[in-house]
Amino acid sequence: MFAIKSPQTYHHQPGLRARTGELLAVHSNEIAIITSPKAWQSVNPQLENSLREAGIRWQVNFLTTGCTDAAIETHLNAVRAQNATLVLGIGGGRVLDCAKAIANLIDDIVLVTLPTVAATCAAWSPVSIIYNAHGGHVRSQPLSRMPLMVLVDSEVIAQNDVRYLKAGIVDALAKWYEFRPYKQKSDDSLALNLKIQAAKLAVETFEKYGAQAVLDNARHEVTPALIKVIDANIAAAGMANSMRDETPAPGVAHAIHNRFTHQPELHDWLHGEKVGLGLLVQSLMESDNGEPEPELLALLRQYDAPLALPEFNGNRDEILSSIAREVKFSAENAARLPFSMAAEHIEKALRATENQHYS
């Protein structure tokens, strides 16, 4: 079995928020919007005007928490009460994941995502990441319904803090470094080889345009370089996540990230920042000489990924041991990697980040 679970259409155009109404009106005139106050402000008044001009009725539902089961239930009830025929998610990862989860629980509804940052591939990715009320990772929920459209307005993304773009670059880089090790023991998986090809496209885009895109985003300017990097963060990374067959290839850095989310001291780190430190830990786990891969370390430094854990409120040695023990990774998947996923091996790599000053 081989499957590609991806959106039907990917639209990317500066100023696209002003055309959203005409694009949605073909499919629905009663839409439920899941967004955050900041994201909603960033797309308006252009988006509201476009909905009004297209004769669309809409109701705005503000997500003010993480993407939790409770939040999904609350907003699911609101969407059902509205009798909406289309769910439009506008915002960052937590908003888009909530909108995707809601749409997957309602029959005969259309899903559209409009990312306001390029910090993850959530607008495209075939999963919703569910957290608890404290921000800790609970599960990655596979989706059966994918977005009809992903609408990307680079003018909106360019106005956001460049920190989001850099975190998105690191999150997209992770796909290459996470999928690549699986090839050492198995090179006959079509899904894995296509994942790696999509991930490699993202890496090559960052090599050519990443530095310029970061400068352009910092100046809030839409340029060809920024457009290409936004596409790599959302579409190329999303496509790398879209390939599926009988043999999963879960990312080690993302598994480490998932445990990091349970540390209160890391709650102000972006997803890609936690993934970046997870990549450093993974590289140390892969290393034969106790040093991370130089090319990866240079990229993590270039995009300001945190390269050490912060101060903890508690016994540091005990917390490091706890983190290592609680990284969730199945024995079946670990057996297909060319390095050990044993807790003591993870802990050794974590402690190496303590002993070296990579930053």
UniProtKB/TrEMBL annotation:
Q: Which residues form a coiled coil?
A: none
Q: What class of enzyme is it?
A: oxidoreductase
Catalysed conversion reaction: glycerol + NAD(+) = dihydroxyacetone + NADH + H(+)
**Cofactor(s) annotated in UniProt:** Zn(2+)
The name under which this protein is listed is: Glycerol dehydrogenase
Pathway(s) it belongs to:
Polyol metabolism; glycerol fermentation; glycerone phosphate from glycerol (oxidative route): step 1/2
Provide the species name.
Rahnella contaminans
Q: Record's InterPro entries?
A: ADH_Fe/GldA, Glycerol_DH
Q: Which domain of life is it from?
A: Bacteria
- Entry annotated with the keyword Acetylation: no
Any one GO MF annotation of this record: metal ion binding
Q: Which Pfam families match?
A: Fe-ADH
Q: Where does glycerol bind?
A: 171, 254, 271
Residue ranges of the Alcohol dehydrogenase iron-type/glycerol dehydrogenase GldA domain? 7-153
Q: Where does NAD(+) bind?
A: 93-97, 125, 131
tRNA-binding recorded as keyword: no
Q: How is the cofactor bound?
A: Binds 1 zinc ion per subunit.
The alphabetical list of record keywords is: Metal-binding, NAD, Oxidoreductase, Zinc
